[in-house]
Amino acid sequence: MTQKKLRFSGQVLQALALNNPCQSSRKSMELFKNTNFFQRINVAATFLIVAALVKGIVDGLKGYADSNSVLKYFSANLDISILAVFVLFFKIKMMIDDHHHFSEENQGTSGYRWAGFFLAFVVWVFIALSGYFIHNAIRSAELLSLSLLLSIGWIAIHLKEITKKTPVSTDAVIAQIRQKWVLLNVAYIVCLVSYIGWLEPIVKSGEIILLWLKP
Question: Looking at the structure, do residues 44 and 68 belong to the same domain, yes or no?
Answer without folding.
Answer: yes
